Amino acid sequence: MKILLVEDNEMNRDMLSRRLQRRGHEVLIAVDGAEALRVAGEEQPELVLMDLSLPVMDGWEATGRMKADPQTASIPIIALTAHAMDADRERALAAGCDDFDTKPIDMERLTGKIAALVPDGAT
Fold this sequence. Notes:
Layout: E1 2-6, H1 10-22, E2 26-30, H2 33-43, E3 47-51, H3 59-68, E4 77-81, H4 86-95, E5 99-102, H5 107-117
Parallel strand pairs: 1-2, 1-3, 3-4, 4-5
């Protein structure tokens, strides 16, 4: 499965991309929301893992724009954030995210969420 990982923190990005690649996924990288929109439009990933606190354009706005664009609207988005309050989850879902997961990432939990959104994708 082709996954777009949108993460500005280099350590988080490297760790998560390696773990996803070990599970057989192709991982595309974007470090801000504007780059995420460009990569999603060009590459058409099967899933986006979206950090919400990003430079240039935050994950909230990038998600809203992806969901408003017919070219990327059907791509499932999982919000990844250190903000673990119920209000943050509700805000992410209201912005258009299909699911929500908190940092630090629990890989088994995240893998289950990926499988639920893209059942035919390899996990």
